[in-house]
Design brief:
The protein folds into 2 domains: about 80 residues, 434 Repressor (Amino-terminal Domain) (Orthogonal Bundle); about 40 residues. Helix content is about 80%, strand content about 0%. It is built from 8 helices and no strands. Helix 2 crosses helix 3.
């Protein structure tokens, strides 16, 4: 399935979840009432719902507000949003005060020194990974 068709399905599903009939006329009225810019046409909304086009960012934000969904979920789907959340959760849970303090100090260094520190860390990580692999063979 392509991005436009997937977006159209998410848009229709969000309309149903919001208690709206997934038809162009219904969405057109709701959209134009809430949009601060130039009104969109029936054809434009029809293209969104048929999977022929994805609205621009400003329009996507209005759609998300109307349908009470997060804009990134409407645009990209739950899977992408969940993946981002898992990564953020891993980052938040895996880092304590000392690591945060170290990262702050690292970010204050000039770029050449950050490069050296980054190379040292990556080298340690690579060696550690090889050591783990060697222990697994024993």
């Amino acid at each position: 399935m392509n991005n436009k068709l997937e977006f159209a399905q998410r848009l229709r599903d969000a309309m149903v979840a919001a208690g709206l009939e997934p038809r162009p006329g219904v969405l057109l009225n709701q959209f134009n009432i809430n949009y601060w810019g130039r009104s969109v046409t029936f054809q434009a909304v029809s293209r969104w719902l048929r999977g022929e086009a994805i609205p621009a960012q400003d329009k996507l934000l209005v759609l998300a507000g109307i349908l009470k969904v997060e804009p990134q979920v409407l645009r990209f789907g739950e899977a992408v949003s969940n993946s981002v959340q898992l990564h953020k959760q891993r980052w938040d849970e895996g880092i304590g005060y000392l690591e945060r303090e170290t990262f702050d100090a690292f970010l204050k260094l000039p770029a050449p020194q950050r490069k050296i520190i980054r190379e040292v860390i990556l080298t340690f990580a690579m060696v550690h990974g090889e050591a783990d692999a060697q222990q697994g063979k024993k």
